[in-house]
Specification:
The protein is built from two helices and 13 strands, in the order ααβββββββββββββ. The protein is an alpha+beta fold and 249 residues long.
């Protein structure tokens, strides 16, 4: 009776042992898989595609106006306001001014910048010439003001395109026909005519020509003066065909 019972017991216990081993094997495989994954030994993840690089739009380079290679800046004659720096004089020399009266040479004019005027210096050049002689733009200019008064008479205020300097023309006989505020005129262009308007002696026609460092604010035409005598780079010879008004043909 006991032998039979043992046999039955052995037959019934064998399947339970197999199932336990199977469960243990499955658990071991799961643990091994988790271990390998944690240690980097698992299957490599698929590579994540990187987005294509985005090209930033390129800005065109800013054009820098080259400075002309010129002889050294001339000496400034006469007193100079402290607001006028050597850098200002260098910039004025870069303008390469033309003598602003038609037909005159630099050797023909006098430096009367420091001449006395009612207890002060003149601070400008008086350039004598016959009445109605064409007055020229000393550089490439923008016409800023056209006025008439008892002192300067018929007057032109102009500036260079970079607005560094103001150019003052006084005692004109008249303006060039059609000249208007805002006009851009090329160097050597006719802008007016020599006269004796204002407080100029009626028997001494001349151009009162003044250069000033352009002032800031509303009164841009009233900056510290600069003696232009040594900064004229060319004589008053008008370029052929440049901005010649009809009445001069």
């Amino acid at each position: 009776m006991s032998t039979t019972s043992c046999a039955i017991s052995n037959r019934t216990s064998a399947p339970k042992s197999s199932r336990a081993e199977a469960r243990a094997g499955l658990t071991g495989r799961i643990l091994l898989t988790l271990f390998l994954a944690a240690c980097g030994g698992g299957p490599s993840p698929s590579p994540v595609p990187m987005p294509a690089p985005v090209r930033e739009p390129t800005q065109p380079p800013v054009a820098v106006k080259p400075r002309k290679v010129l002889p050294p800046t001339p000496i400034h004659y006469g007193p100079r306001d402290t607001a006028v720096t050597m850098a200002d004089l260098d910039s004025l020399w870069q303008q390469q001014l033309m003598l602003p009266v038609e037909g005159l040479t630099r050797k023909a004019i006098k430096d009367n910048y420091t001449a006395g005027r009612a207890g002060r210096i003149h601070a400008a050049l008086d350039i004598s010439a016959p009445r109605s002689t064409p007055v020229l733009a000393a550089g490439d200019l923008v016409i800023g003001r056209l006025t008439t008064g008892p002192v300067g008479g018929i007057v032109i205020y102009a500036s260079d395109p970079d607005e560094q300097f103001t150019y003052y023309y006084a005692h004109l006989e008249r303006y060039r026909r059609g000249l208007a505020v805002g006009d851009r005129v090329a160097k050597g262009s006719v802008i007016g005519y020599v006269g004796t308007t204002g407080n100029a002696p009626k028997n001494a026609p001349h151009l009162h020509f003044q250069v000033m460092k352009r002032s800031t604010g509303r009164a841009w035409w009233d900056g510290p003066p600069i003696n232009p005598f040594s900064y004229f780079a060319s004589d008053g010879i008008r370029p052929t065909g440049r901005d010649i008004p009809i009445e001069d043909l």
